[in-house]
Specification:
heterotrimer, A mainly alpha, B mainly alpha, C alpha/beta, A: mainly alpha, MetI-like fold, 2 domains, two-stranded antiparallel sheet, about 70% helix, elongated, B: mainly alpha
């Protein structure tokens, strides 16, 4: 029996779990520095971090960099350290290409002669701090934190602290979209649940047709519809609601319109299947016992609808968090969510540590929601009992 | 199962309000799809109303331009191969899991459903790094396996749902009458779960056919699929050919999903008619 | 269920047959960003060259994804033979061993590229693009803006301002508005306090800024009246005027930010010699002049100017080269290579507030 499941498990393990695991590992992977500067790292292990290290460290650096000269490892090491301290890249490549450990004399003099920045503690402290195989650097950066001069944690300078804002923006957009979906989806699901099976099936088609259409196609349709001369603006101007076209795309409004459209079926469908099972007799019984309609609604209908609402809302929220395509097509520069930056750091900035750190944080948030959901569902089952 | 009729004025007003809102929301849901359909038939160069005239010009461009035809062919080939791999593996997995009596069962279900929970952009990026290491970026089979992994949850869940009403005594009876396990499967189990298998296969096909992000990160130009081409069209040069391509994609999804829906209704009727022990 | 094996065999056969068809002629693959620029390149460079040499030139999309260059070179699995890319990516790619190092002086005269910064070890410039102050001549008829300070003056010319959603180019423009002579803008930016000065100047204009991310948007913003003035690229402006009958005017004398787009050959390309020949052809004077006629970007080869009429030279910055902030040279490359990522974050933060 298990043998039948084996091929699928193998696929999952090799082509899903393994890639994802390696990707998440990259958020702490720091193999560049200890791998390419082994002697320097060893020499710095006994240095306490104050002032400058001694001559042996300079010699170790000279030997390490000379060994890297001419290979692609040198600029890549420079790129890696540049994330910590802008300017490190040119420092590494210039030094690596010119240093000569075989030349007699003080290595310290030679290296500082090549570039005076080696006389500043900051660069040495950075190498020392990043000497281990694992690092917190990327995860901290993704939360707008960093190591301060004294070694403790401090906030990144406010002028470039964008990641907490980004997380907030992502959560915010997802939250608003979820709220709108609840407000719009509940009446629809309730109407469908209260209709005859024939009519409910007919109404269901309206929900299923967009559901079955791909996300990309629907986002494309909105790009076409929301342009300045697009249908929506034309209709609004034609009906006299507006004097001239209003920007509906490449901004937050357009993004909400498109994302709610894409995610609404995910709200309606689970909610509908739950609402379908609520027996109307209970409401009538409550009315016959003297309850006002609003009371009956709140105390009989809503508690039974809650599992569907929670299921739909959390599904919508989690899906919205990870969206990339719709914001990229319909949103403006200030509307991009975490997914966009994960892609940016992967493709353009080639800072895979940051891409992974952002991904790890996104995954953590998603997991927290699922765990909270599991708790909620568990508690609910107890409450009903 | 209809709700009790409204009595007070407040009830009547809110009843009407909810109905109106429902109509508006349902219109909002289908409007974009309905609106771009006529636009794809425009004879002009811009995607605006009113249409200068109706014409098949952009569909002709879609059918003849090597960019679009190659993309469509790539999409179909990739989706078909993915469907075969995913349906086979998924059916076996669902059958295996059904007969499993171990505590591993929920964990295995969870593992197989995992791709549904991870944001697609992360999956695509993770596969990019992984494939870059393995030298699989741009390989056809690399894409098949990636799409298979994304499609498996749908296949397994669909078939597992079908198996819920399945009576395990039937293949056992066949075995008792002398059939080998393979014969019992082919002649007894498979015909009964066939609607579920076909539904699962359709889900797998649509998942692969509509997939964009993995192709964007991991695919080579030789493997440009229809969604990939559509993405270029929307982000770079928007012509009505893009609308035509979108309509083609919509039609494929709708036809296939209609098949699934019909099978589901047929399955419901079938299950309703079969007596349970 | 139909026997899967027959279907599988049929598919494999079809795939093999189809892939066989694709390898009929020698194929040179160029990675570029598509759009109107690629259309012009196809018309003027690739088409004639492919016909003359009986080869096939295929274009594939490349949007400056450095990571893709790396993953291809590392695995030896190249998609592109050559790519159209920016100065920064040429420098980075060259350093990191992703692009072929070639002695280009063997194939062309380096002197004709002097104005645009010369030939690089790994790249050859093939077009020169200028970004500058643009406004709709139909909406602002007389006494249009003449300087970047005018651009900042929202009292005299009310309305929004379109600006590129990027740190580079935008920072240089801000410094020009703050009184820095354009040729010195990069120097001031790279010096301590330069970035702060640029951001401070941008802060003053911020409530009126409408950020644009792609070239087409900049034109739409101007033509629809959404913005009163914008920073836009000369090629796009000239094309839009020609195709859509617009009257967008560029005031390059206010100061412009100019740079080149380069071609670079990927390391390990099997069609290296062919790519060199294509590049050699495309940067020679006549094709360069023809290119200007089609899309109005400046030529990289100065000999092409002699082949143009006065009217054709109108949108080119040839007369305003003393007002150029050039995006080339060690200072520019060094600064952005070191600070690109950090400044991106500062810029994003600034724009979001």
């Amino acid at each position: 029996m298990l043998a039948l499941v084996a091929p699928s498990i193998l696929f999952m393990a090799l082509f899903f779990v393994a890639p994802l695991g390696l990707f998440l590992f990259r958020s702490v992977d720091n193999s560049e520095v200890p791998g390419w500067l082994p002697r320097t790292v060893a020499a710095l292990s006994s240095w306490k971090g104050a002032g400058l290290p001694e001559e042996p460290a300079f010699r170790a650096l000279a030997e390490d960099l000379a060994a890297l000269s001419g290979s692609t490892a040198l600029p890549l090491l420079g790129r890696r350290l540049n994330h910590d301290v802008p300017g490190f890249r040119t420092l590494i490549t210039a030094t690596g290409n010119r240093v000569d450990p075989a030349r007699p004399g003080s290595m310290r003099e030679q290296i500082i002669g090549i570039d005076p920045r080696w006389g500043e503690p900051l660069y040495w402290q950075t190498i020392r701090r990043e000497r281990h195989a694992l690092t917190w650097f990327y995860l901290l950066s993704a939360l707008d934190l960093r190591y301060g001069a004294g070694g403790g944690l401090e906030r990144a300078p406010a002028e470039s602290a964008i990641f907490l804002d980004l997380l907030g923006r992502t959560l915010g957009i997802s939250g608003v979209v979820t709220l709108i979906c609840v407000l719009l989806g509940f009446p629809v699901a309730a109407t469908m649940a209260g209709s005859s099976p024939a009519r409910a099936n007919a109404l269901l088609i309206f929900v299923l047709v967009p559901f079955w259409t791909s996300l990309l196609v629907r986002s494309t349709a909105w790009v076409i519809l929301l342009q300045n001369q697009g249908v929506v603006n034309q209709a609004l101007v034609g009906l006299g609601v507006l004097e001239k076209p209003v920007p509906l795309i490449f901004n937050r409004l357009g993004l909400y319109i498109a994302m709610v459209h894409v995610l609404l079926p995910f709200m309606v469908l689970p909610l509908y299947s739950v609402l379908k099972g609520i027996r109307p007799e209970l409401m009538r019984a409550a009315a016959s016992l003297g309850a006002a309609p609003w009371t009956a609604f709140l105390r009989i209908y809503v508690p039974q609808a809650l599992p569907g609402l929670v299921a739909g809302a959390s599904l919508v929220f989690v899906l919205a968090l990870g969206y990339y395509i719709t914001p990229a097509l319909v949103g403006g520069p200030g509307d991009q969510m975490i997914g966009y930056f994960i892609a940016y750091f992967t493709n353009t900035a080639v800072n895979w540590g940051m891409a992974s750190a952002l991904g790890t944080i996104l995954l953590l948030v998603v997991t927290l929601i699922y765990v909270a959901l599991g708790r909620l569902a568990g508690l609910e089952r107890l409450a009903v009992r | 199962m209809v709700a009790p009729p409204p009595i007070t004025t407040l009830e009547r007003v809110s009843h009407v309000a909810i109905r109106v809102l429902t109509v508006l929301v349902l219109a909002y849901l289908v409007a974009p799809i309905l609106v771009i359909l006529p636009l794809s038939f425009t004879s002009g160069e811009l995607l605006i109303y009113p249409l200068p005239a109706l014409s098949l010009r952009w569909y002709r461009e879609f059918a003849t331009s090597p960019l679009w035809t190659r993309a469509t062919w790539n999409s179909v080939v990739l989706a078909v191969v993915t469907t075969l791999v995913a349906t086979t593996a998924g059916t076996l997995a669902a059958l295996g899991l059904q007969g499993l009596r171990s505590r591993l069962k929920p964990a295995l279900y969870g593992l197989l459903a995992l791709p549904l929970t991870i944001p697609p952009v992360m999956v695509a990026v993770a596969l990019f790094y992984y494939y870059a290491r393995l030298g699989l970026v741009g390989s056809f089979w690399g894409l098949v396996l990636a799409h298979t992994v994304l499609a498996l949850p749908f296949v397994v869940i669909t078939i597992a749902a079908t198996l819920q009403g399945f009576d395990v005594n039937l293949p056992r009876a066949a075995a008792g009458l002398g059939a080998s396990p393979l014969q019992a499967f082919r002649k007894v189990t498979l015909p009964i779960i066939l609607p579920g298998v076909v539904s699962g296969a359709v889900f797998a096909f649509v998942t692969s056919f509509d997939e964009l992000l993995v192709i964007l990160f991991v695919g080579s130009p030789e493997q440009r699929t229809l969604p990939r081409q559509l993405w270029s069209g929307v982000s770079e040069t928007m012509t009505p050919a893009v609308a035509a391509a979108a309509v083609v994609l919509i039609s494929v999804s709708l036809v296939l999903m209609a098949v699934v829906e019909l099978l589901r209704r047929r399955g419901d009727r079938f299950r309703a008619g079969v007596p349970h022990p | 269920m139909p026997k899967p094996s027959c279907l599988r065999i049929a598919i494999v056969v079809a795939l093999i047959a189809w892939s066989g068809l694709a390898h009929a002629q020698t194929k040179l693959v160029v990675g570029n960003a598509g759009g109107s620029s690629a259309d012009a390149e196809r018309k003027v460079f690739y088409g004639p060259f492919a016909a003359a040499n009986k080869i096939q030139i295929q274009e594939e999309s490349f949007n400056q994804e450095l990571a893709k260059l790396r993953s291809q070179v590392e695995t030896g699995n190249l998609i592109w033979d050559m790519v159209s890319t920016t100065a920064i990516n040429v420098a980075t790619g060259c350093e990191e061993g992703l692009l072929e190092k070639i002695d280009w002086s063997k194939y062309m005269d380096p002197k004709v590229f002097q104005e645009v910064g010369g030939l690089s070890e790994c790249g050859v410039p093939y077009l020169f693009v200028s970004g500058g102050l643009t406004y709709d001549g139909n909406r602002i008829k007389d006494g249009g803006p003449k300087t970047w300070a005018d651009f900042w003056n929202v009292t005299k010319w009310p309305g929004k301002r379109g600006m590129l959603y990027r740190a580079e180019q935008t920072f240089e423009v801000a410094l020009m508005a703050d009184g820095v002579p354009p040729p010195k803008a990069m120097e001031v930016l790279a010096a301590p306090g330069g970035v702060d000065r640029a951001l401070k100047k941008l802060e003053a204009l911020k409530p009126n800024i409408h950020w644009w991310k792609n070239g087409a948007e900049s034109i739409t913003l101007l033509s629809s009246g959404e913005v009163a003035m914008a920073y836009a690229w000369n090629g796009r402006v000239a094309s839009a005027n020609k195709t859509n009958n617009l009257n967008l005017k560029m005031e390059l004398g206010a100061g412009h930010v100019s740079g080149c787009q380069y071609w670079a050959i990927m390391k390990g390309s099997k069609n290296k010699e062919l790519a060199i020949k294509l590049i050699q052809y495309a940067v020679s004077a006549q094709p360069q002049a023809d290119f200007v006629r089609v899309i109005s970007y400046g030529p990289a080869n100065r000999d092409a100017y002699a082949l143009l009429t006065e009217q054709e030279k109108a949108t080119l910055p040839a007369k305003h080269m003393d007002k150029a902030s050039l995006q080339l040279g060690k200072l520019y490359l060094g600064f952005w290579l070191a600070n690109g990522d950090a400044l991106l974050q500062r810029f994003v933060k600034f724009a979001a507030q």
